[in-house]
């Protein structure tokens, strides 16, 4: 369970901003968005294959330093 303790001299808005930043760094929001709808195993495989193709194509066209 993630949580942020509000400091004595801190406003609620600042604490909320810190909480949101903490959740973003932990990847919680992306996991929630990813798991909102059921994805069939074939769709997962198709998505991962497309990402691998994009990554391979990107590495071919970008010369390494």
What would a concise description of this structure say?
With 65 residues, the protein is mostly helical.
Describe the overall structure:
The chain is an all-alpha fold. It contains 3 helices and no strands. The chain has one domain.
Structural class: mainly alpha
Report on the biggest sheet. none
Question: Per the principal axes of the C-alpha atoms, what is the gross shape?
Answer: elongated
Number of domains: 1
Number of strands: 0
User: Please, what is the average pLDDT?
Assistant: 88
Strand content: under 5%
| Residue windows where pLDDT falls under 50 for at least 5 positions | none
As a whole number of angstroms, the C-alpha radius of gyration is: 19 Å
In whole angstroms, the N-to-C terminal distance is: 42 Å
Q: Given the structure, what is the number of helices? A: 3
- The level of helicity is 55-70%
Helix/strand order, N-terminal first: HHH
């Amino acid at each position: 369970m993630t949580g942020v303790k509000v400091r004595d001299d801190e406003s609620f808005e600042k604490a909320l901003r810190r909480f949101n930043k903490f959740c973003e760094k932990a990847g919680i929001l992306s996991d929630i968005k990813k798991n909102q709808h059921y994805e069939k195993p074939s769709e997962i495989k198709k998505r991962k294959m497309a990402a691998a193709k994009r990554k391979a194509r990107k590495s071919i066209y970008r010369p390494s330093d």
